[in-house]
Amino acid sequence: MSIDCGSAGTQAVVAWADGSAHVLSFDGNPPLHSGSYLPANGQAAGQPAAFIPGPRHPVEDATSGDARGDALEVAASPLRRVAAEAERVVGQPVRDVRVVVPAGWGPRRRTWMRQVAHRAGLPQPRLVEAPVAVAEYLLTTGVRVPVGAFLVVCDVGAGAEVTVLRRGPAGFEVLATLADAAAGGTAVDHALADALIGASAGEGQRASVADSVRVAKEALVSHPAVTVPLPERPPVIANSAMLDEAVRPVAWRVAQLTQEAVAAAELTVADLAGIYCVGGSAQLPHLAAAVAEHTGAAPVVVPEPGLVAARGAADVGAVDTATVERVEAPVPPVRRAAAIAVPGFASLALIWQCLLTAERHGVLGVYYSVRVNWGEFTMAAVMALLACLAAGTVLGSLIAARSPTPGTRTEGGRVSVGILAAVSLGAAIAGLYAVVTSQYFGMPVGPYLKWALWPIAPVSVMALAMAVVAARQWRSPHGGWSALLAAPTGSIVAATLGMGLIQYSLTADRWPDRILWIDIAGRVGGLLLGVAVVMAVVTPLMFRLILAAPLAVIFAAIVSRRAAGMLGVIYAIAVATWWATRLWSRILRPAPPTPTAPPTGLVRAGMSPGGGG
Q: Which of 122, 174, 378, 494 has the smallest number of Cβ neighbours within 10 A?
């Protein structure tokens, strides 16, 4: 059972494991009046100061003793009646109770709500934040909210609460929430009362006409004019123009809250998957138009919004978890293994050829030198880092399985730790290449470290940025992290073959009958390396074909001992560019999903954490 205690009405839903649900009704109407009067300290019941708007509103001055006990007892009366009605419908006490609370509530108000539920005889409730419940219900009605997408829930009941949510791997999380008690149905009621009985009327007079004004407000949404009975006065006529005048400042304030909440979440409207309006006052005129005018995005007013959060908190219509969209798209084992093995074997092949074909001079003399293909050496370090990054998710899973830290066991935590481990491992392997090579030739380690570590620095920085994104769970890339971390296999193979042929042409014995073929092999290697650079930088096939031809010819033309190092560095820059492009297009600025309105045929009722008003 889920309970939504609004300022004006309490809504409750009983749901079964198959997703079916029953909306509890009281005296023939789903909403149960939330407010009660607390006579205390000799104060007569019915006075405004003794009024408790509902279970959500702690009595500020009843902090201890009998006063607090009386306040808890009165506040618990709506929940006690809800529990009795639920037991009548189900045939036994309900053991799983969820209570909807605003996202902006702190510990004191949450503790108060638990105390109220306990006083009402309910089991320990699970508190569900209203915008999270709304978002979960939207998913069950067919609204597509991919993992990593953002949406805004404008909950307009007696007051207004605007919340920006992000769908993470484990559910929805609140990024920013702003509330204004004077931007909802209560403010509209006061404005209508002022228009009907005069702004000089006291609180007692306002309280006496509150119910009549509320009914008139709801009727004016669909009728041009209504007759409003007033106690001790002749009835008056309220028309739609009076409602429009009362609603405009409220609608403007809700639109302003929406803008401020999106800005507080450090987002723009273009980042949002949609704006959804719920609550008992969500269907007031001008509200959707004001939000659209201020934000530039048309909001979706969920049909019959009064029960949306209650249904969402109760998991009404929820599907089996096996069918829910997953964060990590399944990657075929063969493809994942190839993404790790290809750059790994390419790195080993390049460093092996670099060591065996290096030219030593002055071995027996005083002056000793070694000529190394720095381009090949650099590419071996780059390939080692790419292999480690492709194994990032595997490394993260292995670390999380043995880590006592709970944060590393979430999807974002595993990916973040895995990327950090991959960068560290890749840098360590590159450094090891430098140390081993310098010791193998008996040369100073400085130049080798320079050619091994500096070219992989840009890629490492991009990978660390991805680790931060994964840790904060801002966005999850389409296709999953495994697919994102895998470098382009075709480019790696072409670059490895190209540099291998270049090194062969530079170091092979140049017998007269083989000079032509050796030179051709070097030119072909340059061609392949040029193609590999284009494959890393450009994705569309047409652009690859256009750019590959001139760049491959240029690379083939400049193949030489001096140019080999430059060619390796160019490929390292191309790989860094590839990573930067993926970080930008898939993580930082992905194409925003198209907002989808919930199918009206599937939505039977809606709800507001603020209740009707």
A: 174
Residue with tokens 């560290």: 424
How many CB atoms within 10 Å of residue 92? 7
Secondary structure (H, E, C), 145-193: CCCCCEEEEEEECCCEEEEEEEEECCEEEEEEEEEECCCCHHHHHHHHH
Find the length of the chain.
Answer: 613
Sequence letter at residue 431: G
Determine the Cα–Cα distance for residues 205 and 187; give it in Å rounded to an integer: 16
The 3-state DSSP class for residue 178 equals strand
Give the C-alpha separation, 420 to 3, whole Å. Answer: 44
The residue type at 569: V
CB 258 within 8 A of CB 154: yes
**Torsions phi, psi of 89, nearest 5?**
-70, -45
Place of tokens 């004016």: 220
3-state secondary structure 528-583: HHHHHHHHHHCCCHHHHHHHHHHHHHHHHHCCCHHHHHHHHHHHHHHHHHHHHHHH
Q: What is the pLDDT of residues 497-550, one digit of tens each?
A: 999 999 999 999 888 888 899 999 999 999 999 999 999 998 888 888 899 999
Cα–Cα distance, 104 to 100 (Å, whole number) = 12
- For residue 21, the cross-strand partners are 15
Amino acid letter, 24: L
Q: Which of 384, 395, 463 is nearest to 426 (CA)?
A: 384
Angle subtended by helix axes 203-220 and 240-264, to nearest 10: 90
**How far is residue 198's CA from residue 214's CA, in Å, rounded to a whole number?**
16
**Cβ–Cβ contacts within 10 Å for residue 323, how many?**
7
Q: 98 pLDDT band (50/70/90 cuts)?
A: very high
Distance CA 490, CA 365 (A): 45
Residues facing residue 275 across a β-bridge: 152
**Helix orientation angle between 515-537 and 541-557, rounded to the nearest 10 degrees:** 140
